[in-house]
Amino acid sequence: MERQNSHQATYSSQHPFVHTLKLTRAQLIRGMVLGSILVPIRVFLAVLCFLIMWPIARLRLAGLSEAERSRPVTTGWRRWLLHPIIWFLSRAVFFFLGFFWVRVKGCRAGCKEAPVLAVAPHSSFLDMLVLTETQLPAVVSRSENQSIPVIGALLEFNQSVLVNRKDPESRKRAVVQIKERLISNGYWPQMLMFPEGTTTNGTSLIKFKPGAFLAGVPVQPVLLHYPNKLDTVRWTHRGTTWVEALWHTCSQLYTNVTVEYLPVYTPSQEEKDDPNLYADNVQKLMAKTLGIPATDHVMEGRVPTRKLGGLSLPLEPPARETLSLLHKDGLRESEVEAALSKMIDRCQSEQGWRAGVDELAPLLGLTDRQTAAKICGLYSKVNYSKDDMVDLRQIYLSVTSVSGLLGFKSLLHTAFTLYDRECSGSLTAVDVSDLMGALVGSPQYHTEELYTELSLRGAPTEQDLFRVLTTHPTYQKLISEYFTPGGVESTPPSSPLTKGKAGNNNAGSPSDNRTTLPYKTADNGSPLPSKKND
Q1: 75 — phi, psi (to 5°)?
Q2: Which residue ranges does the record annotate as region Disordered (predicted)?
Q3: Mean pLDDT of the region 191-199
Q4: pLDDT of residue 509
Q5: How distant, in Å, are the alpha carbons of 27, 191, 204, 424 from that of 15?
Q6: pLDDT-derived band of residue 204, with 50, 70 and 90 as boundaries?
């Protein structure tokens, strides 16, 4: 058990992808004194081991043809001579870093009984220690890691599966390769996977990716514990950096770790047919054993998200940060509304709906160009864009959805009008995906389930979209938990997009063209309830 008391460090976390180690003054001084002595020595010895491993690891497949490399190297001198040496040096790396003892609970199953080991929680790059306790099984890694000195040689040594995440064909080949290995009945050695796919702060088990469960073979869940007074090993999306994690860990006299093997999990036929169900059930089992919740959080690229049906909702919505930046730049509520209205006018003009930093600043009425650059950066990050161009529709809809400047029905009418490219009164599957991505401020790639619900009566119309989002149990949560709507009114006020235009039969005609503001905004950018104007 990890001990915690008022005299120890505290840990700050907003969601599973944030971990910040906060040390007391005494702990900070102790770490600086011990670290100045231990860290250089330990890192030097670990690097020395890696350098010795480098050429030895390359010998494993040296001189073999492509056909021979495509088969497991499990016999001959390449196995009985090189494998023990690499294992010993790998264990020495972690010994020198302060992992003197590894407590093992339970027994590791053989390859035929459990072709894959599913390890969680995934806390840090230091989790690679588990490889030494499982006899260096093959792993799945990014193809980019192959070019990293030493790391690339070690991935080649244990014949790991490499995948280029940006290449769909590479991902398909990796899936086929993994399945072939897992159903080989012991022909290929055991594989080890971290089904969370990224590191977390350990407060919950995030959604498991289905890769380890695609073949429908038994898996052995493996729990990784760090029962120490200070939780120094964790390295997450935001918070403590990997350098800080390494420094704090090496500054300790020693670091405890426990590897716990759970009984082999044999899937039912239903789980074999549905890898996602299989993954979810194993996740829940491991979370129950750990005594922490199993959640729907997942890291998509560089964006921490939460799953809601087929939707991925960003945990750090760019719209909320954008609203905060606008207020910090001095924009009042009325000025934010005017700026968003100008965005709609721009989207309807010949200039189109894409804009760069220099165009965004005057559109938003910003005095500081750096603020516009930050906003562009927020949306470029979630859209994985390499340039500084942003989609004004996405900024308008996502900011409006969290600011309460429009009621939900008005917001949806504006969104539908923007994404009904053919002006046909209906949406395609791509339109639905783009529209939902704009509303939540992050691209949506798995909206098939939503589109199916919308298409039950034919091509999805605005009424269908409103009906499903407000009545379907899953998507009701989107409105109640994620948006800050001004109420789901029966007759929406006009939005900037519909001024002077005939609305469809889903939108009412207000007596004037003023947008009703159901919310006031606090100084920190958070929306606060207020009375509607008469």
Answers
A1: -135, 170
A2: 485-534
A3: 94
A4: 34
A5: 25, 30, 9, 42
A6: very high
Question: Would you say residue 206 has pLDDT above 80?
Answer: yes
Segment holding 297, helix H or strand E: strand 297-300
Helices in 455-509 by DSSP H: which ranges?
Answer: 462-471, 473-477
**Contact between residue 31 and residue 39 where contact means Cβ atoms under 8 Å apart:** no
Q: CA 220 to CA 264: how far, in whole Å?
A: 4
What is the Cα–Cα distance from 429 to 347, expressed in whole angstroms? 22
8 Å CB contact between 297 and 305: yes
Max avg pLDDT among 27-36, 69-78, 391-400, 407-416: 27-36
Q: Which residues, in sequence order, are CB contacts of 396 under 8 Å at separation 6+?
A: 340, 343, 344, 347, 414
Residue 214 vs residues 330, 335, 454: alpha-carbon distances, Å: 52, 52, 29
- Residue count of the chain, please give it: 534
Backbone angles phi, psi at 100, to 5 degrees: -70, -35
pLDDT for 282: 97
**Sheet of 18-22, strands arranged across:** 10-12, 18-22, 238-239
Would you list the domain boundaries of the chain?
Answer: 10-300, 314-529
DSSP H or E stretch at residue 29 = helix 25-59
d(C-alpha 343, C-alpha 402), whole Å: 17
How far is it, in rounded angstroms, from Cα 251 to Cα 259? Answer: 22
* Per-residue pLDDT tens over the stretch 142-172: 888 888 889 999 999 999 999 987 788 888 9
CB count in 10 Å sphere of residue 330: 12
Q: Tell me the C-alpha distance between 286 and 121, whole Å.
A: 9
Q: Report how far apart, in Å, the C-alpha atoms of 23 and of each of 6, 20, 238, 248 are.
A: 11, 10, 17, 10
pLDDT per residue as tens digits for the range 362-405: 888 787 788 888 888 888 776 665 666 788 888 888 888 888 77
* pLDDT at 414 > cutoff 90: no
Q: Which residues on neighbouring strands pair with residue 305, listed in sequence order?
A: 298, 314
Nearest Cα residue to 290 out of 205, 230, 356, 369: 205
Determine contact, residues 297/15, Cβ cutoff 8 Å: yes
Residue 379: both structure tokens together = 């949306």
pLDDT cut 70: percent of the chain above it: 86
pTM: 0.80
Give DSSP secondary structure letters for 154-183.
HHHHTT-EEE-TT-HHHHHHHHHHHHHHHT
Q: Which pLDDT tens digit goes with each residue over 442-461?
A: 888 888 888 888 888 888 88
User: Which uninterrupted H or E stretch holds 220?
Assistant: strand 219-225
Phi, psi of 289 (to 5 degrees): -65, -35
